Predict the structure.
Amino acid sequence: SRTHRTAGRTGGVAYGRRSGAARMRPRGTSADGRDPVGSEPGHPGEARDEDAHVGLLRSEPVASLKRGRWVKLICGASFEDAVSVRALATVYALAGVDCIDCAADQAVVQAVREGIAAAEQVAVQWGCLVPDPWIMVSVNDGNDPHFRKAVVEPDAECPPDCSRPCEAACPAAAFRFTETRAGANAQVIEERCYGCGRCIPVCPYGLLEEEWYRRSSTQVADLLRDVDAIEIHTREGHLNDFRQLWQELAPALRNLKLVAVSAPRLGTNTAEELAKYHACMVPPTQGALLWQLDGRPMSGDIGKGATQAVVRLAAEVVARRGGLPGYLQLAGGTNLHTHAAVKEAGLLHKESGKQPLIHGVAFGGVARKLLSNILRELEEISTAAPAHIEEHPYILKRALAIAEGLVAPWKE
């Protein structure tokens, strides 16, 4: 059987968690997508050919993990621009991502759902296999750079001679200025700011600050009823905070298909530290477990050198992981050069019959940056209501060609 729903449906698409059509799944998996023989590496399940979709190899998300072909789109843990998130979800779902990671906000999750539903409709029109990526939300166990916003000091005014370096530094176009007699009032568009922090040090007048936040466990638990996966961001020194958050969310984690833990380099032996986090997972998750290795948090850089940190971190964890269960996925500094760098480091190779060393990759800042001009173009042609990318086939195909260039190397 095919690994994705075939494009044979008629009528409208319901913008719910799943459309009304039954989801096609591989033999040997349960109705919720889990592999009954085990969700961790070492349980290969049933090997099957993958389907072609818009020129790419496609598979169920869990099959992608097992084969080292997992690709995740990171919309941004603090990026809450629902219009842009919807467009990103549409394009990257068609490009073949296995998972779309977004802010733990109901409106943002709904935007992802609508984007996936739009991709389904496009696939039906094009006669392609219908994409069905998992939806993931990101949360934090304490102060974390992914969970902050830039704020302007109250009543602050930019002098008339200010060159506005904050606006130039911002990759999310999150600044708005209102001209005044004394200069200009600056405003941070909160839903667009995803906390990269680049604006704060460049303000010549020190008018910008960072504001950290954490969503309540109750709010997150309610949201987990309608998504497939969660990612918990942690940092060095947060072990007790992680343990507490796990206990608070444990009942809501049971039915998820995937639980991911995102961490940068931890101490001198990241694999050893991750094992400590794994020991805190009581009760354990029933779904798959994934470790996101965040080489250069909040990078978004497109240069070849930007990806070296995450490749080095991955090599160290692979060499020292021992009995650490779970899949390994790269993030932080990942870009168009990452696949070649991972291959050069020997991390794509595997012995016959054994699991991949690295199971996948996540793209965040670079995925958004590559489509930033197209998102601006959509914004410019919007009138009373936001323009939806699927309503403009020429724009959609241009965006898809760009997105496929990022995704394709990991799927081939």
